[in-house]
C-alpha cells in the first residue's frame, strides 16, 4: 500500500504543468535572499532628523538607521552592508509588500489596521511616541483648550488629521483645520503666522523645529492625544525573517540592561555569567535558532551599540534634540522598553 501511494503521488505530479509545480514551491525566505545578496535593503524616511536623515557629509544617521545597521551586523556580520531606500508615508507599505526593500524601519505606528488582515507584520517597538501640538510661545497657549477657535495646520490624509478631529469633537472644542500635502509647507505656514498651531508626533515636531533654527520661539503643549508605538515592519508569511528583525531590537535592549556596550563588549566575552556567554555567542545556541552566526548579538553591540547608546547619540543628550528617555527608558527604570528573556 505504501509503495502504491508513492507511485500515485509521483504520477499526479508528473501530469501537472511545470508552472503548476513551481507555484506550489514556497517563496524564497528573506533571510536567505539578504545573505545571498550580501546587502540589507532598508526602507527609511530619509527626512526625519533623529530617526533617519543624512548629515552634511551625506552620512546616514538616526535611531531607525542604527536599527537597520544592527540587522545588517546580525545577518551579514557588518553594519556597513546596508542600502537605505527613502520612502514616503503614502507608499511605504506598498513598496514593502512589493519587495522593494527587506524591512521597513520608518517611524511607523503599530496599530490594528496595519497588522490584522494585511500583508505586513510589525516586529517590535523601537520608540514610543505620541501626537502633540506645537505653538508660538508668544501665543501663551498651555493646554489644548487654549486652541479653541484657532487655526491648526496638519498633514492631509494622515492619522494626525483624524485624531485631532476626533479628540476635539469629543470635547466640544471648535477649531479650524488647515491641511497641507507636505510637512515643509505646513511648518512654513506656522512660521508665517497663517496658523496658530501644528500637530504631528512629538518626535517629528521637535526634529522639525530644531532643524528650522527657530526652537527658542516655539513650545510643545504638554498634552498628547494619542499613543504612537513605532517600529519596523516586514512582509507577512516569513516568520523566520520577522524573528531576526524582532530579536535584533531586543538584543540592543538586552545589552543595555546588562550594561554591555561598544566599549566593554570584548571584556564581557570572558564574563562568568552563563547568560552573558550565551547572549554573546561564547556558548553556542541562539545564533543557530535564528539562522545566524553565533556572534550575531556581539556584532550588533560591537558595531552599533546598545539601545541607550543609539538613543543618546541620535535623540538624547548627544544630539541637537536633547530628548529625555521618558517612557522609552528600560522597564527597570520605570519605562516601557523591555526585552523578553533570552532563554
Structure commentary:
The protein is of the alpha/beta class and 343 residues long. The protein has two domains: 30-128 and 230-333, Periplasmic binding protein-like II (D-Maltodextrin-Binding Protein, domain 2, 3-Layer(aba) Sandwich); 131-226, Periplasmic binding protein-like II (D-Maltodextrin-Binding Protein, domain 2, 3-Layer(aba) Sandwich), CATH 3.40.190.10. 39% of the residues lie in helices and 16% in strands. Strands 11-10-12-9-13 form a five-stranded mixed beta sheet, sandwiched between helices. The chain has a three-stranded parallel beta sheet with strand order 5-1-6. Helix 4 (63-76) packs antiparallel against helix 14 (296-303). The longest helix is centred in the C-terminal third of the chain and has 19 residues, at 239-257. The radius of gyration is 23 Å and the shape is globular.
Structural class by SSE content = alpha/beta
Q: How is the biggest beta sheet arranged? A: 5 strands, mixed
Strand order, main sheet: write it out: 11-10-12-9-13
Whole-number mean pLDDT = 90
Low-confidence spans: 1-26
Query: What is the CATH topology classification name of the largest domain?
Result: D-Maltodextrin-Binding Protein, domain 2
- Which CATH class of the largest domain is shown? Alpha Beta
Quaternary assembly: single chain
Q: Alpha-carbon distance between the termini? A: 45 Å
* CATH homology-level superfamily of the largest domain: Periplasmic binding protein-like II
Number of domains: 2
Individual helix count: 15
- Give, in order, the helices and strands: HHHEEEEHEHEHEEEEHEHEHEEEHHHHHH
Name the shape in a single word: globular
Strand residue content: 15-25%
Q: How many beta-strand elements?
A: 15
CATH architecture type of the largest domain: 3-Layer(aba) Sandwich
Rg, alpha carbons: 23 Å
Amino acid at each position: 500500500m505504501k509503495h502504491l501511494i508513492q507511485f500515485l503521488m509521483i504520477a499526479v505530479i508528473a501530469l501537472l504543468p511545470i508552472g503548476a509545480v513551481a507555484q506550489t514551491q514556497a517563496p524564497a525566505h528573506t533571510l536567505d535572499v539578504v545573505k545571498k545578496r550580501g546587502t540589507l535593503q532598508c526602507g527609511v524616511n530619509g527626512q526625519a532628523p533623529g530617526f533617519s536623515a543624512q548629515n552634511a557629509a551625506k552620512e546616514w544617521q538616526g535611531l531607525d538607521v542604527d536599527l537597520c545597521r544592527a540587522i545588517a551586523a546580525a545577518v551579514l556580520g557588518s553594519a556597513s552592508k546596508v542600502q537605505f531606500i527613502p520612502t514616503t508615508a503614502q507608499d511605504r507599505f506598498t513598496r514593502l509588500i512589493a519587495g522593494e526593500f527587506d524591512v521597513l524601519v520608518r517611524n511607523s505606528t503599530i496599530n490594528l489596521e496595519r497588522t490584522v488582515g494585511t500583508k505586513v507584520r510589525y516586529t517590535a517597538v523601537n520608540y514610543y511616541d505620541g501626537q502633540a501640538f506645537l505653538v508660538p510661545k508668544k501665543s501663551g497657549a498651555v493646554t489644548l483648550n487654549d486652541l479653541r477657535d484657532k487655526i491648526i495646520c496638519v498633514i492631509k490624509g494622515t492619522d494626525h488629521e483624524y485624531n485631532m478631529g476626533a479628540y476635539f469633537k469629543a470635547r466640544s472644542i471648535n477649531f479650524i483645520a488647515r491641511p497641507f500635502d507636505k510637512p515643509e509647507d505646513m511648518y512654513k505656514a506656522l512660521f508665517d503666522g497663517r496658523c496658530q498651531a501644528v500637530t504631528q508626533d512629538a518626535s517629528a515636531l521637535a526634529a522639525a523645529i530644531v532643524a528650522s533654527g527657530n526652537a527658542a520661539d516655539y513650545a510643545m503643549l504638554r498634552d498628547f492625544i494619542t499613543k504612537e508605538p513605532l517600529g519596523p515592519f516586514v512582509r507577512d508569511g516569513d516568520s523566520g525573517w520577522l524573528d531576526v528583525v524582532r530579536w535584533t531590537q531586543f538584543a540592543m535592549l538586552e545589552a543595555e540592561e546588562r550594561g554591555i556596550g561598544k566599549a566593554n563588549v570584548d571584556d564581557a566575552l570572558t564574563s562568568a555569567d552563563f547568560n552573558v556567554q550565551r547572549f554573546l555567542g561564547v556558548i553556542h545556541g541562539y545564533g543557530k535558532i535564528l539562522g545566524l552566526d553565533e556572534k550575531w548579538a556581539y556584532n550588533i553591540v560591537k558595531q552599533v551599540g546598545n539601545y541607550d547608546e543609539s538613543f543618546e547619540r541620535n535623540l538624547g543628550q548627544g544630539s541637537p534634540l536633547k530628548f529625555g528617555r521618558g517612557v522609552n527608558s528600560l522597564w527597570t527604570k520605570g519605562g516601557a522598553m523591555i526585552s523578553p528573556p533570552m532563554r
